[in-house]
Amino acid sequence: MATLSDQVRDYVYRNYIVPARENKTASVTVTAGDVHQALKFDSRRMSLVCAALNTAKFERQYGVRLLQRSGSGHGPTATFTFSVHSAGERNPGSPLLAGEHGVRTTT
Description:
Elements: H1 4-22, E1 27-31, H2 32-38, H3 46-53, H4 56-62, E2 64-70, E3 79-84
Helix pairs in contact: 1-3
């Protein structure tokens, strides 16, 4: 069974990454509050949305690279801008994949 974090990553993939690739868009920006609202999570889950997108797992699983993170720490205005290259392409220079444990601890 998929975890809530898996649901977040899958939602962003299907609703942001796939359309961007189909339109040959170079990058896409995701706002945590929009994802939170679309998934109808309760208010305690906002931090989960941010954490799910701020992982090397998301980059590896969907072939994206985090370019920029801005906005509030784990709030609804947190935004994540991802490079949307082909799913099979490696993620050179990814700050998340370069981390010791694969998780970004600062923004």
